[in-house]
């Protein structure tokens, strides 16, 4: 079994773990920081908007059980792809939506998926989620890991906002 990785940024990493964590074929999901210029940043440094990093999740998966394309589709359902400077109540460059691709195959899948979403007509605003080469991923402090299990009440409030967005914007044709 050859495990692959996917890295997605879509606002607060607390909300990005749970949708992937329990799927068949997912080996591990970790919260962290990526895309910036500071080595081994802390949460406080990333929150200061001086590191260039965004909050993200790194997902280890078995491609024979779940494909990268399926993960990208799940990613779109967790984000507002029309908001370049944050997600929902989380504002700032450290919450920008990014799909970080590991190779040309992932880039092609992500680009095709983004184009399909843009052509779907589901959003009146343009899709602004960027697709960038993977950068070093720094795991967040342990208290950020599996947050949805540690603080289910706060996680439920975060997820409620995302669900309201989905209901308002992901109307099927």
TrEMBL record:
Keywords: Oxidoreductase. The keyword Cell membrane does not apply. One of its GO terms (molecular function) is peptide-methionine (S)-S-oxide reductase activity. Residues 5-154 form the Peptide methionine sulphoxide reductase MsrA domain. InterPro entries: Met_Sox_Rdtase_MsrA_dom (IPR002569), Met_Sox_Rdtase_MsrA_sf (IPR036509). It catalyses: L-methionyl-[protein] + [thioredoxin]-disulfide + H2O = L-methionyl-(S)-S-oxide-[protein] + [thioredoxin]-dithiol; [thioredoxin]-disulfide + L-methionine + H2O = L-methionine (S)-S-oxide + [thioredoxin]-dithiol. Its EC number is 1.8.4.11. It holds the Pfam family PMSR. The active site is at 12. Belongs to the MsrA Met sulfoxide reductase family. Has an important function as a repair enzyme for proteins that have been inactivated by oxidation. Catalyzes the reversible oxidation-reduction of methionine sulfoxide in proteins to methionine. This is Peptide methionine sulfoxide reductase MsrA. The lineage of its organism: Bacteria, Bacillati, Bacillota, Bacilli, Lactobacillales.
